[in-house]
Design brief:
Chain A: This is DUF4198 domain-containing protein. Chain A: Pfam families: DUF4198 (PF10670). Chain A has 332 residues and is mainly beta. Chain A has 6 helices and 18 strands. The radius of gyration of chain A is 21 Å and the shape is globular. Chain B starts with 6 loop residues before the first strand and ends in a 6-residue tail after the last strand. Chain B has 186 residues and is mainly β. Classes of the chains: A mainly beta (332), B mainly beta (186). Chains A and B meet through strand 2 of A and helix 1 of B.
């Protein structure tokens, strides 16, 4: 029997998370702290996987969507929010008081939403989400023919980097005003990072369409010169890297960009075999898919923050714009 | 060679309505000698010892040498949900035909193992006469719980090849294919 809707308890977008989950997420946040590299905002990749990216037929098909934070592409490790699976059995638990945690990482995870851009280019309603412990999941019914964009949206992540009095590098999650009282005495070289994460993928039912794949004009993103749901092994796909809607042609700006392309199943090989394409003068790059499967394209751009920080410590502030795009490549 | 009935009704699974199937009768019809590009093609759905055995989905179509689609010659399937599994046909023609143009006359239900004849009259999807020195014949067969085989065969229309026969040996999910070129090219 095919159930068309998730249980009612999942559908309520306003089900409040219990504080226990806050603690659990707090533990996750600690895990993130210990692995996040100073040089890069990625310590962990974030990704979204649709169960199907190419569908055909007259019936409106359903697609299951998983998303997670992990180093093993695409094996889930940490959930990205959603209603805890335990709560599905326990509505009383699910409706307990809101998580009051002041942990910024928990707040960020709790801010996660999933929405879709439908083939007509409009933004649909948020999808209900379940937290399955190692990953979060949702489902989407493709009512129309054409290409959908699936977005996992989160609040930006704030990180404060500093050196302890003995010179060892350290970091705290949260904006400077939040972490100030937690800074050890004698902390120096304060740096704040604000990381904007854009996690998305595309799914097409029947004929391809272009409205949902159009650039948004915000942050770091790809312009698809090859449709994301028509990718075949041994063929080249072409992209233009944009920042705020403009191709990144400036040499200095190009040098502030990191691009990584990773094929699935890193868990089952010893080399990550990450490709790092280079941009040409027009801000374009091309990738020839070596084999079929799922690929994660990660892009990151670090820029001095535009927000004025009047702090007397001469803090350097950096904004990091990151995207994580999952693409499915088909055998010939 | 098996003769197949020109018209037959195939009973599908209960959840699918039955459709009327039109396949060209297998006779030694003359080639469309009026056209430069015309073909008689014989394809084979091979007997495969598998349990459970599902009849394959089949797509046969023509492209130019830049892989631009020209025409679908046959699509045999029993549920549109799985049309996408004929990946190359789906990307080149299926997606658009699905919405823009009926496949009637070209499409039919899946067929049991045997030999089937297809003819091409040298015209594209819009009925325009094609005059090219080289074409690509594409055949894709996909079997549920089985494999997928895809072949792309270049066909030259030159004085040397007039009247010749191309034979493609059986491979995987696709049985032997023969392509008969017209005796004269106009």
């Amino acid at each position: 029997m095919f159930i068309k809707t998730l249980p009612a308890s999942c559908q309520n977008q306003h089900v409040i998370r219990k504080s226990k989950q806050g603690m659990h997420l707090g533990a996750i946040a600690l895990g993130l702290c210990s692995t996040l590299l100073c040089s890069s905002a990625f310590g962990h990749s974030r990704w979204v996987i649709p169960s199907h990216s190419i569908l055909s037929g007259d019936k409106a098909p359903m697609v299951s969507i998983d998303f997670s934070i992990s180093n093993d592409i695409f094996h889930p490790d940490l959930p990205l929010g959603g209603i805890p699976i335990q709560a599905l059995n326990d509505k009383a638990e699910a409706s307990k008081g809101e998580d009051q945690s002041n942990n910024p990482m928990v707040k960020m995870l709790n801010s996660t939403r999933v929405n879709v851009i439908t083939p007509d280019g409009k933004t649909g309603a948020d999808l209900p989400m379940v937290n399955l412990g190692r990953k979060s999941a949702t489902a989407l019914t493709l009512e129309h023919s054409g290409t959908y964009r699936v977005n996992v949206i989160q609040n930006p992540v704030d990180v404060t980097l500093f050196k302890k009095s003995d010179g060892t590098p350290s970091r705290l999650f949260g904006p400077l005003e939040h972490v100030k009282e937690k800074l050890p005495n004698g902390a120096t070289e304060l740096k704040t990072l604000r990381i904007y994460n854009d996690i998305h993928t595309y799914v097409t039912r029947n004929d391809l369409s272009n409205k949902a794949i159009a650039p948004t004009g915000r942050g770091l993103e790809l312009k698809h010169n090859t449709h994301p749901n028509e990718l075949f092994a041994k063929e080249a796909a072409k992209y233009t890297l944009l920042f705020n809607g403009k191709a990144i042609t400036d040499k200095d700006l190009q040098e502030s960009v990191d691009l990584k392309i990773t094929h699935h199943n890193t868990r089952y090989r010893n080399q990550r075999n990450t490709e790092t394409p280079t941009l040409n003068k027009k801000g374009e790059f091309s990738i020839t898919w070596s084999e079929p499967g799922l690929y994660l394209i990660e892009g990151e751009l670090s820029l001095p923050s535009r927000s004025k920080n009047s702090d007397a410590n001469k803090v350097s502030n950096t904004d990091i714009y990151a995207f994580f795009l999952t693409l499915e490549v088909t055998p010939q | 060679m098996k003769m197949i009935q020109p018209i037959r009704t195939i009973k599908r699974c209960l959840h699918l309505c039955s459709i009327t199937l039109l396949l060209l009768p297998l006779t030694t019809m003359p080639s469309y000698a009026k056209e430069k590009n015309a073909l008689d093609i014989t394809i084979t759905v091979p007997t495969i010892d598998a349990s459970p055995y599902h009849r394959p989905f089949v797509a046969v179509w023509l492209e130019d040498t830049n892989r631009k689609p020209i025409k679908t010659l046959a699509v045999w399937y029993d549920d549109e949900t799985w049309l996408k599994d004929m990946r190359q046909w789906w990307r080149k023609l299926g997606r658009k035909l699905h919405n823009a143009q009926s496949l009637d006359g070209l499409s039919g239900a899946t067929q049991k193992p045997g030999t089937y004849s297809l003819q091409w009259d040298g015209k594209d999807n819009k009925g325009k006469t094609i005059k090219l020195d080289e074409l690509l014949l594409n055949i894709e067969m996909v079997r549920e719980e089985g494999d997928r085989t895809y072949i792309r065969q270049p066909i030259m229309f030159t004085q040397d090849s007039a009247g010749s026969t191309i034979t493609i040996p059986a491979d995987g999910e696709i049985g032997q294919t023969t392509i008969q070129l017209p005796k004269t090219f106009n």
